[in-house]
Amino acid sequence: MLSNTYRAIIIGAGPGGLAAVKSLLDAGITKICWIDRKFGGGRLNEMYREISSNTKVGIYLDAVESSPTCQRIIDSTPKPNAITAFEKYDRDETCQLSIAGDICKMLEKGLLEIEGVDKLVDTVEEARLEGSTWKVGLSGSSTTLLTSRLFLCTGSHPIIPSFHKSYNPDLEILDLDKCMIKSNLHSLFPKNKSSIVGVIGNSHSGILVIKNLFEINKERKRNLKIINFKRNEIKYAIYKKDGGIINDNTGLKGDTLNWSKKNMENQNNNNNDKEEKLIIEQIDISKNEKEIYEKKLKECTHLIYAIGYESNNYPKIYIDNNDNEIKQNELNFNQETTEFWLNEQKVKGLFGLGIAHPEKTKDPSGQIENAVGLAKFFAFSDKNKDRWVKDI
């Protein structure tokens, strides 16, 4: 039976929520309520299982095994399991995200079996801070939960602007996440006629989508041409001898890197066959953007925006008996401490983690990046777990 008072409440059960729960347990905090609308493992497990990860197998394993709580779950889970399957891969190679998704679900199951961790399948409607206590209201219950620590691990979603409408209002806009599922991608296009697909962006998500489109065309599942609108050259991760990684969070790695270099970087190379040259057209929009869109978007039948992600909506947040809802953009997230600030004052007991609340890091070249990924979230939560314990 659920309590109504907890030492911590975590909203969201994706990789960020997983990292928060394991680090709280590592720090000795129990009596945790973990809330999610379906406990599906977040976008990583629900939408991205078919794509290649941008993290090496060894980094995943080191991150998971560094947590005493996760290690106990691994030791107590009957074999074979998701970890033993993972250990069969080369530590220096990347893998399909389904493997990482299986690990997330295995750890989630283990965490929820720990005494002092309650699972609640529901949606948080609002959170009110009164003094040092958060009062959390749910959509599926009249019960109000109380805590001194509230974690927003609420995730993010692809940004979908609408500027295409002034160039081609008839374009069919495809959801970036759905385009990550290659096994179903062909169903988004007509069977008996060709389609021209515009992809805006050439970062990791953009290249993954282009790769999927390229492959379903090559497999004769659909007749496609791809137009990639880009501002910059494709970035690749560069591994240094001392273990540092330039473009660690922004550069392609593994299978995606190899595919891109073969099919996009060498597009005009004589070694590529004529068919491959015709499938992908890359257009630099860093100059004459409007003129290019005016001409080329009219050629497209479909368009995919791969220009980044934005935070999902928070629950309604109220502070200090004020009935005026705090707007999401009024809260400032500290990318070093996981804390939130409002009007230059720290919000008591409010923390963030996950893809919408990443750590800010600097790569060996001095480039500032957002550290995104399961292993990065584990590291960020580990750095801050002592703060979570003593800061209340």
From TrEMBL:
Return the protein name.
FAD/NAD(P)-binding domain-containing protein
The beginning of the lineage is: Eukaryota, Fungi, Dikarya, Basidiomycota, Agaricomycotina
Return the SUPFAM superfamilies for the record.
FAD/NAD(P)-binding domain (SSF51905)
Q: Could you list the residue ranges that cross the membrane?
A: none
Source species:
Kwoniella pini CBS 10737
* InterPro entries associated with the record: Agnestin_monoxygenase, FAD/NAD-bd_sf
